[in-house]
Design goal:
homodimer, Aspartate Aminotransferase, domain 2, Aminotrans_3_PPA_site (chains A, B), Aminotrans_3 (chains A, B)
């Protein structure tokens, strides 16, 4: 097939005409048309190559040939639904179980992280017979109605906060209520959840679930302080609720040292429900909920079938299995650990000469560069962050994006084949751009 | 790859261990393991061939080689998200627009019919600034929390009816409140919606949307009476609401004479929102919402981005385009019309000798066989229907299933390549089984 079928202006014109404008384009002033990709590289219609620092979905690299081969082979053989017995779904569940603590051994396959979080909420409410949810400030758990309700990032701009939703402070040790200088921020932030639970109880309400991304993304690439999750889980369980770890962005080895980001909180911590999505199918719509036998049994006990038309079909599971193989065979966790450490190290080095860099944080290939206008007040450098993103694209053909409540965090969540050289290039370019901006500002 | 990787007992044992039991198996007493499929045929691990009368998802036939080829070619080239410009999404939207009335020209691509219906509900509520929904009795619109709320089929067994949800009678002219002998059932059933709207208004509430499958499936393969939808749309719009046509099961030419089942209601009728899903990607997780410029603009006006990670990606759209090509090139609508008519005709013929067959209804390859214990009282023959399903599988290797509030409707919604001979075979087998059952019952 011809790679480009329409001229770019025509694509843009049709896009405006046919696709809901709520679906936004990157670089909306000058959107990019991508026609080809490989590994960590994107190519536009003129063959210009972009280094991709943000496609966490294309986890093992864009268009990995062994994923395509696995998909095509299974598509040619069979793609039916999970009401028939098939080996792929059970073999895939078995492989996923091996990555998780023993008690997380029951799986539900779905088509998106949003579907996974919606189901997690149903499971939690059914199991606990409670309604209320605690979510972290600035959190985003998906685009479905039920998830907008538990996502402060969305509901504050839309329908507002429901009476059954409660917002706990984001455990951000850079600009949150407890910072690096606190002797035990993990405990202190966990205690805010404890206090919130007590407040909920005083209202005569009951907690079904605490929902949190294992590393809050939209919140600003946040690393939860040590001890936080285990303590929160203890408080939430005492209140009869369950702990849902949203690993939709962070799972499948992105953090390098562990397969799941929640494992950064130590072996003493295990969630009751884990949701997964984005990287799971390397771009194929595939997501999952893992939970315990007890929670699954409570869900079964309601006597109502859960049927997801496409969820867990043989093709999706073949792709999921192939992704796991590539993560192992290409040692992508090892790569994430090495390259992520190098990237963080290089960014930390240039921090000494750029007052704009307030903090460098991250783990594995999940890294954030927090920009501030002054380090003392930590005022978010929103505009600077936007200019860095724009100049990296225009001058260096590098795609990064921003996040955080003030869009002041430049984030890195590249395909896991990101190399040492890629890390060096992007830091060198950021260094040059910041130097240049500082010179023209002074 | 080896077709079977585990012995069947092992697959079953792992399925029980790893997959939530709410995800049920067909023929749960003796589940079938399917390892291969082609066209309208499924093959088990021993090579036994089943005639598939129910896989409406595998619309153009199981494992159609041109769908696999399109998927593999695009997977090898690029699979990124809709924040980058790409030709496939706009070309696909353009092709879909050509099948719809002119005013339905804005598209949102998602991953499942459930995601589509959830978004439709958001669009309706945002546009109308009203909350309430009218749904048909026994309706099912998806597995998400928001959709369980508007699906009497589910909420009656689960959370119960919410105050913002109102249930209109199912316009079933066989066993509903107005039947074949009524001079104008379309108008009469539409008036029940009018009455319901007045009741809602008396409560001081306002209608955002009327949701209905264009041919209610779980309700029992129901054909809406002529004039119903246009009248309902008139009443709903007068109340400031919108008409959502759920075409998740019925779209893409299944009815033969038209591309969309709502078009059976005549040219005077056009919904405000159409949702589509199951057959759209021939098994690939692909779904969509189509709506008007006005509704899309109201959604954009809230200022909040709608981002669906996998929705509208280049691979999903390449598959969607390939499905449209096969429907056209293989004249599957023509086939659905011819074979569906033949199937209905043959079933009607055997109705004369089987008192158990209360009604044969359907259009194109969407056909239902309503079984009753006596024709006068139309008592649902639930057990007979279950036995027919079981015997067709065991004696004839034919897969059908049941639906309807009493599971008394044997339903046919096969891949669209279903042949005249397939129709003849299945009717001949049903004839034999019913004859045999009648003999042993007498």
């Amino acid at each position: 097939m011809a790679i480009e079928k329409l001229r770019k202006e025509e694509t843009l014109e049709m896009r405006k005409r046919f696709i809901g404008q709520s679906c936004r384009l990157f670089y909306s002033d000058d959107p990019v048309k991508i026609v080809k990709a490989r590994g960590q590289y994107l190519f536009d219609e003129n063959g210009k190559r972009y280094l991709d620092c943000i496609s966490n979905v294309h986890h093992v690299g864009h268009c990995h040939p062994s994923i395509t081969a696995a998909a095509a082979a299974q598509m040619d053989l069979l793609n039916t639904n999970s009401r028939f017995l098939h080996d792929n779904i059970v073999l895939y569940a078995d492989r996923l179980a091996a990555t998780l603590p023993e008690k997380l051994c029951v799986f539900y396959f779905v088509n998106s992280g949003s579907e996974a979080n919606d189901l997690a909420l149903r499971l939690a409410q059914q199991y606990t017979q409670h309604d209320d949810v605690i979510a972290l400030d600035h959190a985003y758990h998906g685009h479905l109605m039920s998830l907008i309700d538990i996502s402060p990032y969305k509901f504050r701009k839309l329908s507002g906060q429901k009476e059954w939703v409660h917002v706990a402070p984001l455990p951000d040790t850079y600009r949150g209520i407890y910072r690096e200088d606190h002797p035990n921020p993990g405990q202190a932030y966990a205690d805010t959840v404890k206090d919130l639970i007590e407040e909920v109880h005083r209202k005569g309400r009951k907690i079904s679930a605490f929902f949190a991304e294992s590393l809050p993304g939209v919140g600003g690439q946040i690393i939860l302080p040590q001890g936080y999750s285990a303590k929160v889980a203890e408080y939430v369980r005492s209140a009869g609720g369950v702990f849902v770890a949203d690993e939709v962005q962070t799972g499948f080895g992105r953090v390098g040292s562990h397969f799941w980001a929640f494992q950064l909180q130590g072996e003493g911590f295990c969630p009751d429900i884990v949701t997964m999505g984005k990287p799971m199918g390397n771009g194929h719509p595939l997501a999952c909920v893992a939970t315990t036998v007890e929670i699954a049994e409570a869900f079964t006990a309601n006597g109502v079938e859960y049927f997801n038309t496409f969820g867990g079909n043989p093709v999706s599971c073949a792709i999921g299995l192939a992704v796991l193989d590539v993560i192992e065979n290409d040692d992508l966790r090892g790569n994430a650990k090495r390259v992520g450490a190098h990237l963080k190290d290089l960014l930390t080095k240039i921090q000494t000469r750029h007052q704009t860099i307030g903090e460098v944080r991250g783990v594995g290939l999940f890294v954030g560069l927090e920009l501030v206008t002054d380090r003392e007040h930590k005022t978010p450098a929103t505009e600077t962050a936007a200019r860095v993103v724009k100049r990296l694209k225009e001058e260096d053909n590098i795609c990064v994006s921003t996040d955080g409540p003030w869009e002041s965090v430049v984030k890195f969540k590249p395909p896991m084949c990101f190399s040492m050289e890629d890390a060096e290039l992007v830091v060198q370019c950021i260094d040059r751009i910041l130097t240049d901006m500082e010179a023209s500002d002074s």
